[in-house]
Amino acid sequence: MVDASFLQRIREVAAPAGSTFEVRSPIDGHVVADVPDCGAAEARLALDRAANAFEGWKRTTAYERAAILKKWHGLIQSNEPVLAELMTFEMGKPVTESIGEVRYGASFVEWYAEEAKRIAGETIESQFSHKRLHAIKQPSGVVYAITPWNFPIATVTRKIAPALAAGCVVIVKPAEQTPLSALALSKLWREAGGAPDVFQVVTALDPKPLSGVLLDDLRVRVLTFTGSIQVGVHLYERSAHTMKRLALELGGHAPFLVFEDAALDAAIREVMACKFRNGGQTCVCTNRIYVQESIAPAFTERLTAAVAALKVGNPLDPTVQIGPMVDQAGLAKVVEHVDDAVKLGAKVSTGGRALSGLYYQPTVLTGIRPEMKLMQEETFGPVAPVLTFKTQEEALRLANGSPFGLAAYLWTADLRRAYQVSEALEFGIVGVNDGIPSTAQAPFGGVKMSGIGREGGHWGIDEFLDIKYISMGLG
Ligand code: SIN
């Protein structure tokens, strides 16, 4: 069970509501906790509080904001074991990966604590001797952040640490599967001295009534969302009439190109890390592994052996590498994709079956065709489809022939090819001989249907700053 005193502490910070909903663990279905089921009324209240809090927070200095963020960072670090365990209970991530995510999530808070002090405007030369021109940056206002379940700490901090550092206030609506991690972050924020209304968490089973209020209100100036393309498109349309700035981190369908000059063991190590972290439930994990024909048989054989050796089981066991899928719908999609592929001619090299509960065997498939469902949408599960290509041109054509543009990967020992291919890939993130490129100081985000805007690095804080031009006449 989750540490009861910690649960009690984090419950205190949830915006109250008339009813509650259950958070069930995908490990075995037990109820981890009840949390408030907020609706339109709670959203209005949270927004009024946020708008009020903005008047004070925007006037703090970057140094004051940085000091609170630094304390918050320290508290996330010192609560690492309990946060990691909570995450594993909530969404089934293997606990060793949950520890990694707590560290990764904390790194955004640390980085933006430092970056707050580097927000800077410009002076611009004027053609008139009696004028001085300036561009200053100011916090945009209330931010509404809708966060996903697959990285319940890191996607929250990646969005809100830059917003808070910029002087914005935030309302977070975490995924209904993982409200507790977000509430825990909010609790630690308060313990760090952060004002409650500057960072609020509203939990809801059905986000529509709550989101409707926040989307329609002009006081919410930025919407930042990670989730499906379908919901992202809806939010984009819905935000048009209040002209919000949007950062949308939507789905991916990442190709991984393995060229024949690759060192196979190293390439397989990175493909495994890229594909199977978080049980394949990662926006940037590869969904299509393209291997040059001459090395395809050896690659597939070794990959199959590595995948068959993955340990599936209770994610609280530190030796387990693959935990359960997050919920029944997640598992059903994996089953549907593999069954559809097999029906259309795919061959199963290993895995291919659901186990008891929400667990699925890590799987390698060959004989993949473009019309298969897993080639058209994210599977979001431990399934590795292996395809082949003959030439660099063909590899690029296949990789780019997708409406998705979040992340892509390649493995080669040829420096010239590394540049040519990484520059030609139509994706926001490219890992060259690197299956896990994400890091706090780098830009994270996609092109095409994978979204707009960037999180991370100095790009991430600009999403929350307005540029104001001041022309000063000297008379
Ligand atoms: C995500 O899937 O949204 C997060 C993955 C990462 O940060 O690498």
Characterize the structure shown.
With 475 residues, the protein is of the alpha/beta class. It folds into 2 domains: 4-251 and 450-473, 3-Layer(aba) Sandwich (Aldehyde Dehydrogenase, Chain A, domain 1); 254-403 and 407-439, Aldehyde Dehydrogenase, Chain A, domain 2 (3-Layer(aba) Sandwich), CATH 3.40.309. It has 15 helices and 18 strands. It has a 7-stranded mixed beta sheet, with helices on both faces. The chain has a 6-stranded mixed beta sheet with strand order 7-6-5-8-9-17, sandwiched between helices. A 3-stranded antiparallel beta sheet has the order 3-4-18, with no helix packed on it. Strand 10 (254-258), helix 10 and strand 11 (286-292) form a beta-alpha-beta unit. The mean pLDDT is 97. Bound molecules: succinic acid. Residues 150-151, 154-155, 226, 282-284, 438 line the site of succinic acid.
